[in-house]
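For concreteness, we quote verbatim a single protein encoded this way:
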Amino acid sequence: MSRSQHLSSAYLVALFSGTVTNERRFAAAFRSRLPWLRRQSRRARLVLWWTLTLQLHVHARYWLRARRLRRQGIEQPANPLLPWIDPATLVVPFAETPEVSVIVPTYGQLDYTLSCLASIAQHVPEAAIEVLVIDDAYPHPPPRHGEPPTPLHAVRGIRLIRNDTNLGYLRSCNAAAGQARGRHLYLLNNDTQVLPGWLDPMLTLLRARADAGMVGAKLLFPDGSLQEAGGIIWRDASGWNFGRHEDPTHPVYNYVREVDYCSGAALLIERALFQRMGGFDERYAPAYFEDSDLSFRLRQIGLKTLYQPASRVVHFEGASHGRDETVGIKACQVVNRRRFIDAWEPALAADHFQSGQHVLRARDRARHRQVVLVVDHLVPEPDRDAGSRTIEGFLRAMLDDGMVVKFWPHNQCYSPGYTERLQQMGIEVLFGPSVKGFEEWMCTNGAEIDTVLINRPDVAEDVLPAARRYCSGPIVYYGHDLHFRRMRRQAELTGDDRLARAAARMEERECRLWRQFDLSLYPSSEEADIARAMQPDARFRAVIPYGFATFDARDEPPPGDEIVFVGGFAHPPNEDAAAWFVEQVLPLVHQQAPTAHLSIIGSNPTETVRALAEHPRVTVRANVSADALRAAYDRARVATVPLRCGAGVKLKVVEALQAGLPLVTTPVGAQGLSGLWSIAAVETDPAAFAAAVVALLRDDDAWRRQSAAQLAYVAERFSTKAMADSLLSALRLAREQPQQRAA
């Protein structure tokens, strides 16, 4: 479902629920006095919703079929919003060796159950499934001659299990788990309709997270508004369906996070774990609080309940047990709340907030966790630029340390694929008109933020005042590099007086910013020392900007004479480097290695870079995937980083080291990498640069020695752990030893 469809549904909810203006409130009061009009309004909402979501033709087909069957005297659904479905036409996916057993408990309500099964048949997941429908001893009328015992017997693909006696929801689920064959159990209410992606994202998350015990889905009302984005349990054991009746596309409802519980209406758990926990605790039979209790018991053994927003399920709330807490099974909700308090009173007192307080922390289970806000110019695109790789590494390090991380892209833009990447990591990405402005967001939430990490001078100048005004914790700056130094070197190289003046202004701006932060971070000791000398009153720390998990040795050089240069060409120094190498160095290489071929790989190549491909032995490849880049490193014989201006530690240099691909670079490329000169060729003269490249193309022994030395160098300095340790120790320093910031 698209963003515009969700936004339209949220508007319709507001429009028809009387929450927009005084006129709407009057309309709501008027409708409450006219039941017939209220029913028409409900139908109108659904027709509008189906129209906006391009479902009207499907429901029109259902209506026409239902009218035909009515004329034939065939029984119709009790709920007029549900389509009539012929059980004999339903074919539900079935696997002999399922990965997931979908358990659907029922007690009557045939129309809801058939609608649920039809949605599963319509949206078949990639995972192999079986569907167990549990008939909880519902007193069906005697079948006519030649008919199946119940209409559900006509549905193909399901495993229909009928209880001998009525067990209730909780015991039915426990009993069904014992008959399931899948590795995982998906507990699904019969009064639901699944939507595309209802299962696979939950399963992927459960497999990927070793700390995951259960995963719950995003629940929607039939009109498309949000019913629940995970649940909050307050200290008095009252609960919130977080986001109820809100816009389901709002960023706050669209990132993976740990929650107090997720509704049992759509819940995934490993079958062996469910059985090891004894299933749902039968003290809560027949229903209510069993899902919350299971989440609490899982937490006792170190496992979390996670909310997966990518999985969406429509839930007809109240269809099973109604909404009146004084009658029927619904009355168990009040009784079981008291039982829940008796069982979990110490945990509620220690880990939960008073009702309605500290919602930002409560929804993330962050009473005892650090909450960090990271601000950068845009959502990281780690396959496109080095700065994004650094920021994503920082974000992962903070998440792995148990922090709750919020990310504010300064451009406030949604980045397809990359925004979802952060959300699936467990990061709330604050973008779009629904989050309002930075000042207003900080005014509302700043008191809950423990640390703010701001990137780049332009971004810092804009957001720093609000961050300081509303957050009492440390405000930390990451410069990525000394901008003025890079700009000044480029101005000297090109003779650009305007750029030289801009570099002088940038120097003043960076010095002013350093005084206003508790701590300023740079990717090398060299740059941190330069900044410290320029601004002795400020505090600086070097952090490792890149981290790698593997360092695989390469025993033999690859065949061929391929040279590779990698760079993001939105960064002007990379364009200059590529042109200089092709024009000044490559002709000298070809004098001794005429078959040598240069592959230029990188995002956003400029016209100047694309024109280099006119050379018969130069190829330009734009915006390649991470896998394709790795394949290029494996295929190449030499990596070249011929930068003549720039600042900071260069990702392209560290990547070549980590790939075990012998490198030839310049002093600019070697910046911040102490000792690199002893293991790799670092040259400025075109002839010397070309000679170093040719030596690696022709001398296998030299290639092997340099490859091994590079791997040893990078493994010692750029492991994932080393990067995380450097960042986390810097953040601890900022928290434990706050600096007096300049006004």
In short: The longest strand covers residues 304-315. Residues 1-37, 72-76, 324-328 have pLDDT under 50 and may be disordered. The first helix runs from residue 3 to 17.
